Each structure stands twice: as C-alpha cells, then as structure tokens.
Amino acid sequence: MNVINNKWIGSRTIRPDGADKVTGRASYSSDTNMPGMIWGKVLRSPHAHARIVSVDTSKAEALPGVKAVVTSKDLVEFPLDTAVMLGIQDMRWMSRNVMAREKALFHGHPIAAIAATTEAIAAEACRLIVVEYEILPHVIELEEAIKPDAPILHDFIQFDGKPSNIAGKLEHKLGDVDAGFAGADVIIERSFKTRPVHQGYLEPHSCLVSVSSDGKAVIWSSSQGQFMVRAMTGLLTGLPQSDIRAIPAEIGGGFGGKTIVYLEPVALILAKKSGRPVKMVMTREEVFRASGPTSGSMSTVKIGATKDGKIVAGQGIYYLQAGALPGSPIRGAAGCAFAPYDIPNVQTVGFDVVSNRSKVAAYRAPGAPIGAYAVECVLDEIAEALKMDPLELRLKNAAKQGTKAAHGPVYPVIGFVDTIEAALAHPHYKAPLGKHQGRGVASGFWFNAGGESSAQVNVTEDGNVVVTTGHPDVGGSRAAIANVTAELLGIDHKKVSVLIGDTATIGYSNLTGGSRVLFASAMVVTQSADKVITTLKERAAKIWKIDPEAVTWEDGEARPAGANAGQFPPMTLAQIAAKASETGGPIGAGVQLNTQGAEGGFATHICDVEVDLDLGIVRVLRYTSFQDVGRAVHPAYVEGQMQGGAAQGIGWALSEEYLYDKNGKMDNASFLDYRMPVCSDLPMLDTVMIEVPNPKHPQGVRGVGEVPLVPPLAAISNAVYHALGKRFYSLPMSPPRVLEVLDGV
Amino acid sequence: MAKLHVSTTINGEPMEFLCEPHESMLDLLRGVLGLTGSKEGCGSGDCGACSITLDDRLVCSCLMLAAEAEGKSIATIEGMAQGERLHPLQQKFLEMAALQCGICTPGVLIAAKSLLERNPDPTESEVRYWLAGNLCRCTGYDKIVRAVLETAAEMRESA
C-alpha cells in the first residue's frame, strides 16, 4: 500500500479500549471472580540452594478450609536429559521453575501450593507444610558462579568437559578480528558490569482457573500470549490443548515478563483436584523474588579503528546471568551489540551462566541493551581518542542497505543513518550545557519479529466491522489495527471494533513479544480486509447484475467501473451488508499466516544529565530519541513506546538493581527499595519518529516497541562521563556508586 | 472477632458493609463491593494504583482499613465520570494517549483530579511531584504530565 494520502493510518485516534481503562471498567486478570471460587497460595523456599529431602503436606491438608495441595509430583515430569522446546523455552526448565523438583534453586522457588476457601487459610496451610531441606552452598554473583570452585547448581551441565555453571555459549563471527585489530590505529578495550533489573509491570501475575467435571479447563489470566498459556499449561499438566480455553484478560504491563507461565498450571491442578475455580494472585514481593528479572552481566568489549574513524574490528565477550535455570538472552546481547555498524571483522561471544537467583524472563529487547551498553560506551572513547564527534563516528560506520551483519542478515532498506543525521541536526545536540552537566549519545538495534498471526474481519448486519486478532494488546495495538482496518475499507474508524480473541475464538497467534504485534497482525488484517473487499464487490456486482471485475472499491463504497461506470449509484458497505443474506450470506474473512519480512529497528538517543556532586544524584535534564519507526500507524502510541523504553533505560542506568543478602535472599523486594523512576525523576521525553517504511510490509510497519530500551544505558553513561570527566563501567550509577567514583574509592 | 458494621458514602451514594477489623479498604472495594477499578500493584503504598479520596484527601486504599470509612465519604475511579460524561481528565487522557496498559490509570486519574481541585494552575514540577506516588512503567510519564497540564488549562478557561 504505502499510499501517502492516508486518512486513518498515521492518525491519533482514540483507542478502542480507552474508555474502559479511564473509567475502571477494564477487566484485568485479578478483576474476575467466579461463584464457588477458592484461593491458591504458593509455599516458597526460604533457602537459596537446598536439596528437597521430603515434603509432608498432611498437616496442611487437615486444616479446615483446605481443598487441594499441589507439589512437583502433580506436574508432568520432564527428564533432565531430554529437551522439550516450546519456542525458545525448554520445558525441563519451565516445569522446574513453576515447581521445584529435585532442589530448591533460589530463595522464593515454589515448593508446593495450597488451595483453600480463603487466602488467609491457604497462607496458614502453607506454613503447616513440613519440608526437610539439605542446605547446599549457594552462589549469587556472576563472577563467583564461573569460578572453578563455585557451588554447582546442576550436575548435568558440563562446560569444557567439567561440571559447570556455564550452561551455554553462542558465537557470531564475521571476517577475522585478529587481522582487523592488526590494522587499527586506535584500540580500546574495556570491561563492564550491569545488574539484574525487573520488568516492573504494575500488575502482579495472577490467574483464575476453572476445571469442569469433564476435564475441560478455562483460564483467565493476564499474559503476553493466551496461546502460550494454553500450550505451556497443557505441557506441564498433561492436558490436551483442545481441553484448555485460555482467555486473555487486559494486561497490566508485561515488557517480556509475561511470556512464560508461573501460576496457571498450578492453579489448574488445584482446580482439578478441588473441583472448585481457583484464583491465584502474586504479591509484589513474590513478583520480585520469583518472576523475571532480566540478566545481570559482565562483558569485555574491544574496538579498533583507523585514524580516519573507520572501525575495522569489534569484539565482545558477554557473560549473562540466567538465574537458576538455563536461558539468558545471550542471543540478544551477542547479536545486537555491533549490529548497527558496518564492520568487516566482528566476533561476539555470549555465555549463559546459572546461579541461585530467580530464572530470568524476557525484558524488552532481551539482551540487546546489555550488548549495546558496552559497545556504545567504548565507541564514545574511540571518538574521544580520534577527536571525532561521537555521532559523526557512528555515521561514518553506520550500517546501510546491503551491509552484512555479524549475526547473519544482509540489511534491506533501513533508516539507521537517518536517525543519526536527525540527531546531528536537532537543536538538542547543539544546546548549551551548564556546570556539572554532560551530553551523551548512543545507538541501538533490535531484530524485531514476525511469526504466526491470525485475524478475522467480520462485517456486521448493520454495516459496522468487528476485527478479532490473537495477540494481547500491551501498548495500543488495537488502536493501530482500527486505523489500518478503517483505512483499507474506507470507513470511519469508529465503525471498527477491535477485539483480542481467546484460544477458542481466534486462530493461533504467537506471543506479544519481539515487537511483532502490529507487524504481524496488520499483515493478516490486511489480507482479511482484502478478502472482505472482494466479497463486497462481488455482492454489489450481483445486485447490479454485472461482472465483479467491473466493480471497484473506493472510499468505503462499491462503484461500477469500466463500461458500467456511472450506471448505478455507488453502494456503501452498510448498504451491501444490509443485503448480505439475500446475496450469499454473512460477509467476513479470516487469515492465518506465519508472517515473514520483519526487519530490524534502529534508534539513536541523546541524553543530557546533571550530577549533584554532594549527593551523587544523576538527574536526566533532557532526553531525545530518534527512531526508524517504519510507518507510524498510530503515532501517539509509537511515541509512547519510545518514551516508555527511554524511561526504563533511565531506571536501569541510574537506580534499579537486585540486591542480595549473604544468605542469597533478595534484599529489596518492594517498590520502595527497588527504585523505578517516578514522575518527579524524569523530564519530558522527546521523540523524533523517522519513517522509512519496511518494503516487506503492506503498511511499511517495523516493530517499534523494543529498540527504545537499547541505547539509553550507554547514552546516559556517556553523558555522565562528559559531566564529570570520569567514566563509569558499571550500572546502576546510583548515588552511592557515583559518590564512590567521585571520592576515588 | 466479629465483623464490623460500617456506614459510609461511596461515590456519593450511601453504603453499608461488614468488614473484618484488619481488612483493607482496597480489599473491601475490590472484593465485597466489586469496585475493581482500584488496582493492587504492591499492597504497601508504593505504587498508587489503588488511589482513592477519603473526604477529599488522596490516600492509598491498600494502607487504609475498611473500618476507617465509617461516616466518611470515599471517591473511586468508578465515580469519576458523570454517567456517560467523562471527567475532563479522563477525556484528555484518551485524546492524548496518556495511557498504555492502563493499570495505573485509575490511580493516576484520581490523584490528578485531587491535584487540580487544590491547585487549578500547577506547574510541570508541581504535577510531577504530586504524581510521584503513582508509578507508571509504560509511558515514561510524558503524556500523563502533558494531559494533566492541558486539562488544567482547559478547565481554567471554562471555569
């Protein structure tokens, strides 16, 4: 399509789910109750690492009000020697994350669960479960976990032929880095650390599950994928997918953290055993202790450039914390680190390291912010060494159409150069700075994704349109789909309702993740709408008794064309819909597709900070994001993604981190102590959307949701350096750390 | 212990309920009264998703006992619109896309309304500090702050 005269695409329409969300009507997962419903609670390990010798639930079961108990024995067992993959998740780890089996692997690891008539009774019953633990030495920090004498979490994991906490390795190679460095005039090598940070969605995990006596289950939960909930719950409980109906509630934030299950399989078994609907809601403390976060990391990055600013070699070695079970996002770190640049010789290596922390979950461009942080900080030093403007250095080395990336692809049309040029030309880049203030820049890349998607577009008898898609809407995708549908059919967007179907009412659709949703669903909606238009033209042709080929669809109406032009008055969608039953029946079409052609997203950020030398507080004064957004189908929600990503990056860079005590227990499991940015911490977050349409998408859509979190860590770090003249190689740059560096500790 | 009988006013209407002495106002609203617009993000007064007003004072309903509602007047998100007519803040949040997932939105709206009742002409800083008790993880607050400032300006003009 890519027509310029769009009426609805690019328009800031009111979101279809908006009125419910500003009036409190919107139903999130914990807002639903059922008659006869009882409450589930989880007993969690008080130890960071312990063998489970025995679990005695008899006293708990005897407590009046207790209706069912679940331990790992009730879940399907996935033997350690056989991988069972669902997407990128291995069910061996998923089952052991949902309920500890051989060992408790982190403080907060589920050991058993109880369902009782009240939450209080369920909690009391959990305290009556007698667990015999054999306490084992634990290891929390990455540098400790990779030492040869570290406590080993899993005997079956071997690295270099020995038991190890290194559970996996991934390498990308392009050219010959040794030869590249040999030809460099400037080489800078630095090591970095980042801490684990939580996705921080405001809505804790929760679910309501009902299992009827014929074994059919219904799950209401908030997730980034009702089909993921169905598939994982089916695998972990042994139920066929056809017996599970997963209904997506409104989701109160996910950011990747709701791409796996924690409670649903447990609640399902409790519901099945008790014969009662079971509701489970995590506390915020449980969310912190046992869900998410993303990895902490250690990395070393080495970059070589010639005097004229051409980067000739780049190398990045990344160690990422997986938490207690394998699966850290090393692909994102190693794949995205150098991806914005055209460098002939690149090597990146990622190591997946387990330790006694909660298992990591995806977090917005998983791994990519860690990869970019180290590379973009070293680039700042290269620019300084070469006395080059840091944006000019990036511009000189920017990937373009035809550049081969180290992680594999050759880029098609991309707008990375445009983001740098826009940043260079922006008033922000030239604005004066005061004392103790500094400006930093950084760029970033995210893969983006397509994948399975389904849509159904139905014309109602009264001439309106209902669109159903299968990806939960986390940030306004329904608003964008309404714009696309209205544009294609040529009708007012208010005539379009957009719904998210459940697993029984719409075809399989992959997770809301990978920045896929609008890319994939706009594609299937477009194909569905095209079919609907074909039908509408056929119906008009039938009414007019002319060939369907002699009918065109323009501005929401069928018009006779060619030899018949002007012979009949045009018929609107509503007029055709009113005659649907007499012309052939209901009008609607659905398309299910494995969508292809998602192309990467690029961004460049500018950040100004001021450092309070007495208190060590870094304050972000001004922030501007420049992003190739493909086509901004709904610009306000594209800006929203850019702003939200920047804010999360500011938190990651300046204040957020998991802190542990010496017993391996998270020390700051609350919003008071885990410090996410609040309103008074931030300035306005300016955005510059650059539209370089994706040629492989009918509307030119590129994913926009994740790349905004890739540049901030380095942009802020570089800004702090330029404010203080001292570089930080570790995050967060929280007040105590800043004071340490200022005091030269 | 026996349940307590409480007579109160919720969103302008007289209301009676029975509650446990330890029961929070938030649990009572969401459970017994079915007013699930107030959300629980933390249960410890750190996120503001459960914000309500108690005799026009902005409070976290998770930190308030239900029994404290006796003789008082409570306002929740469910009472913010007048029938079909949205409050100007609600309308502006929709127009300016000041929400994404929407879970913080009821609390933010209640807090913002409470600000504008006290200070019809707040500065950006005043908005930011007043809303500092309402966490939002999606928006970076930019569009929220702009929507509150814009609503305030429009309400001043129409006042």
What can you tell me about this protein's structure?
The complex is a heterodimer of chains A (745) and B (159). Chain A is α+β, with helices and mostly antiparallel strands. Chain A folds into three domains: 155 residues, Aldehyde Oxidoreductase, domain 4 (2-Layer Sandwich), CATH 3.30.365.10; 188 residues, Aldehyde oxidase/xanthine dehydrogenase, a/b hammerhead (Aldehyde Oxidoreductase, domain 3, Alpha-Beta Complex), CATH 3.90.1170.50; 296 residues, Aldehyde oxidase/xanthine dehydrogenase, molybdopterin binding domain (Aldehyde Oxidoreductase, domain 4). Helix content of chain A is 28%, strand content 25%. In chain A, the strands form eight sheets. Chain A has a seven-stranded mixed sheet with strand order 3-7-1-16-13-14-15, sandwiched between helices. Chain A has a five-stranded mixed sheet with strand order 11-19-18-17-12. In chain A, helix 7 crosses helix 8 and helix 10 packs parallel to helix 11. The model of chain A has no long low-confidence stretch (mean pLDDT 97). Chain B has 159 residues and is α+β, with helices and mostly antiparallel strands. Chain B folds into two domains: 76 residues, Roll (Ubiquitin-like (UB roll)); 71 residues, Orthogonal Bundle (DNA polymerase, domain 1). Helices cover 33% and strands 16% of the residues of chain B. Chain B contains five helices and five strands. In chain B, strands 2-1-5-3-4 form a five-stranded mixed sheet, covered by helices on one side. In chain B, helix 2 packs across helix 5. The longest helix of chain B has 17 residues. The termini of chain B are far apart. The chains are: A alpha+beta (745), B alpha+beta (159). At the A-B interface, helix 1 and helix 19 of A face helix 2, helix 3, helix 4 and helix 5 of B.
